Amino acid sequence: MQKKCVNILGIETSCDETAAAVVADGRIVKSSVIASQTKLHEKYGGVVPEIASRAHIENIYQVIAESMEQAGVSPSAVSSGQSNCKDDIDAIAVVNQPGLTIALVVGVTAAKTLSFAWDKPLIAINHLHAHLQSAILNEENPVLPAIALIVSGGHTCLYDYHSPLEPRILGSTIDDAAGEAFDKVAAILKLPYPGGPSIEKTAEKGNPDAIKFPRSMLGPESLDFSFSGIKTAVLYYCHGQDMKGENKVDSMSQQEIADIAASFQAAMVDVLVKKTKRAIKKIDAKTVLLGGGVAANNQLRTALQKLCESYKPAKKLLIAPKQYCTDNAVMVASLGYYKFEAKLFADLTIEPKATG
Ligand code: KG4
Ligand code: ZN
Fold it and tell me: Measured between alpha carbons, how far is 94 from 13 in angstroms, rounded to an integer?
């Protein structure tokens, strides 16, 4: 008889993407459906939790149904005795932390309902651990230990990674997250939301050495991050120290704006790379993992690659595929597989949690 593979349905609603995916054996992506809310939040320059939650409610049914249809799976194949690799769902994995509570609750409620109705195990997933998983999606056996840098809109974290189930946090942001800094600086420069891709594109024509923005290292040993200072430095640069000066952005040339974007991006990348270097040293890491929305940034990717190649022997850099850098459910279903194999199931009392 054909060896049965494990199909996990993943669900993600922690911020502003309603996403569902079916992944087999933790790696084979059978479907990935994302309803993005970027257009809804664009005019506010950031995610509005109430709007996000309402849009999740409107989209969740369709997104899950589409992901199952595309994958060609149904919940009932096991009980009807037709189980094979193609057509059954083995468990439902859902992000329950960290994120916007009123957004998370939509995915968690849907997952609990399906778990009960289909009599399938429920698996609770940490959103940041899922981002980390996206970096090893194409690498079954990374050489360990690894350092994982997760840079997203809500978080900036360094992990000591020994197994998918127990990443140990080494440092995180004490104020703004990296993606948040990109988004806020883009808003100051009046560039379109989301800010990360806008800054990156604008920076292509700018000089990264034009302005020396501060690089906050928080002391010689620290693995924590602080990005509020650089954001404020850009704000002062554009409005004057007392914030009473006119907003110079409106009268700036495209070249000046490009120079600010490039100088800001260079400072952000500099800090992220230097902190990763410290973390590599701390645990003598053999591999570096990079995930989260900001991992889509080409300057960051190139700088980390350069860092990894500077070691003898070189460290291996594993980066999440671009389509799985920003929020998605493939990373959720993939991590769900490892928890399924370890029988780490949740019960129907799980709640969404803002932190974690
Ligand atoms: O991981 P993600 O989709 O959401 C959270 O979990 O927060 O990350 C979204 C963040 C946004 O702040 C966005 O501006 C940033 O990732 N981002 C980028 C790039 N693409 C997305 N930041 C820098 N450069 C990019 N190319
Ligand atoms: Zn995320």
Answer: 9
- Residues 66 and 86: their CA atoms lie apart, in Å, by 16
- Most ligand 1 atoms within 8 A of CB, residue of 131, 152, 191, 264 to mutate: 152
Domains and CATH numbers, the chain: 7-133+325-341 (3.30.420.40), 142-320 (3.30.420.40)
Q: What is the pLDDT of residues 165-185, one digit of tens each?
A: 989 999 999 999 999 999 999
Using a pLDDT cut of 70, give the percent of the chain over it: 94
User: Exposed (0-12), middle (13-18) or buried (19+): which is 330, by Cβ within 10 Å?
Assistant: buried
pLDDT for the residue numbered 161: 95
- Cα of 254 vs centre of ligand 2, distance in Å, is 31
The rounded mean pLDDT for the chain is 93
What residue's CA is closest to ligand 1, atom 16? 293
Give residue ranges with CB within 6 A of ligand 1.
15, 152-154, 179, 182-183, 194-197, 200, 292-294, 296-297, 326-327
